[in-house]
């Protein structure tokens, strides 16, 4: 770039201003945004599967309606985020292909099974709770389209988290069997939800640059701490136990002390060897193939429309 383009970019970042699609940007800035935004979009779309698994088996019409609304929201979040990524010069087809051929990542959290109804509560409370902690700072991301998409996503995410908390509360006020089911779900989702924030800062290859470019506003460990601090009082209200006997506030360090997180499990899941990775990708591939005729019909209709308009 000539000096003043780089300088203009650096000044916009320094002033906390937005970088818009038409602005000059370093190629590495563009690439890391395509990486993060597309993976975020993939997470939303894959994230529809664990909950979709319970729409036909929700315990009441009210719960069914709420769960359907939540899964539809996630499809919409995927749409906003794919659209934001497309402003950086990648196509929807390329991103879909990267997801289906396994070269693109999506959040590890969606590679775990949802065997009971209580999982719908644990996902809402823990997974959407973690997503809120991670996504609120992203509303101030330096890249305009991403930050603006996050504002809308965060509004809907808080409804997701509330309904999850409420499902668990109803179960914890129920029978012993319902209480045990809720505790079992919290036990299975707690540690994977901490891994959503990414590896420890010292093992995060992207954090330094993402923070310099004001894409990432806080480090992985700081947001993980913020999330744990939010969960502790809510777990007390619910009457559930967080599955970490070492969890305690360390007043000297002014932070939560937790047991060691199993980063080997994290690496396994990211390498495609989690409990549900193959199922999630196969479902996505099948949906893409089964939907090919719709895309072809829409493209043919658009072609004919364009011809008609030229007549
Ligand atoms: N699952 C999968 N991959 C993960 C991960 C996770 N939980 N945490 C980190 N990674 C990957 C990173 O993508 C990176 O790999 P890459 O360079 O090939 O992309 C590598 O592990 C190292 O991690 P870094 O900390 O260096 O990477 P980042 O700086 O990108 O930080 C992040 C990771 C915090 C997840 C960041 O990418 C981010 O904030 N992404 C946007 C938010 C997001 O994706 N949230 C999770 C989805 S939950 C959701 O949105 C659905 C909701 O509706 C419930």
UniProtKB/TrEMBL annotation:
Keyword Oxidoreductase among record annotations: yes
SUPFAM superfamilies: Ferritin-like (SSF47240)
Keywords: Oxidoreductase
GO MF terms held by the record: phenylacetyl-CoA 1,2-epoxidase activity
Keyword Protein transport: no
E.C. code: 1.14.13.149
Major enzyme class: oxidoreductase
PANTHER family in the record: 1,2-PHENYLACETYL-COA EPOXIDASE, SUBUNIT A, PHENYLACETIC ACID DEGRADATION PROTEIN PAA
Name of the protein in its database record: 1,2-phenylacetyl-CoA epoxidase subunit A
């Amino acid at each position: 770039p000539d000096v003043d383009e780089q300088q203009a970019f650096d000044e916009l970042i320094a002033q906390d201003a937005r970088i818009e699609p038409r602005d000059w940007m370093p190629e590495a800035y563009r690439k890391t945004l395509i990486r993060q935004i597309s993976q975020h979009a993939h997470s939303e779309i894959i994230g529809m599967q664990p909950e979709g698994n319970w729409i036909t088996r929700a315990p009441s019409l009210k719960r069914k309606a709420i769960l359907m609304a939540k899964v539809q929201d996630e499809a919409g979040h995927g749409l906003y985020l794919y659209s934001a990524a497309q402003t950086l010069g990648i196509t929807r087809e390329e991103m879909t292909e990267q997801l289906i051929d396994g070269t693109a990542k999506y959040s590890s959290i969606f590679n775990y099974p949802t065997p009971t109804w209580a999982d719908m509560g644990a996902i809402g409370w823990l997974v959407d709770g973690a997503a809120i902690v991670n996504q609120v700072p992203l509303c101030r991301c330096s890249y305009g389209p991403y930050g603006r998409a996050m504002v809308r996503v965060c509004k809907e995410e808080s409804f997701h988290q509330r309904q999850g908390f409420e499902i668990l509360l109803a179960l914890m006020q129920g029978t012993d069997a319902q209480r045990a089911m809720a505790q079992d779900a919290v036990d299975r989702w707690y540690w994977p939800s901490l891994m959503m924030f990414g590896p420890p800062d010292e093992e995060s290859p992207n954090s330094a640059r993402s923070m310099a470019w004001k894409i990432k506003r806080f480090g992985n460990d700081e947001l993980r701490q913020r999330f744990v601090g939010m969960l502790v009082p809510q777990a007390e209200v619910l009457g559930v136990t967080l599955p970490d006997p070492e969890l305690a506030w360390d007043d000297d360090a002014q932070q939560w002390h937790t047991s060691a997180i199993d980063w080997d499990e994290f690496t396994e899941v990211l390498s495609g060897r989690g409990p549900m990775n193959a199922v999630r990708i196969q479902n996505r591939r099948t949906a893409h193939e089964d939907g090919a005729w719709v895309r072809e019909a829409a493209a043919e209709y658009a072609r004919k429309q364009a011809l008609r308009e030229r007549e």
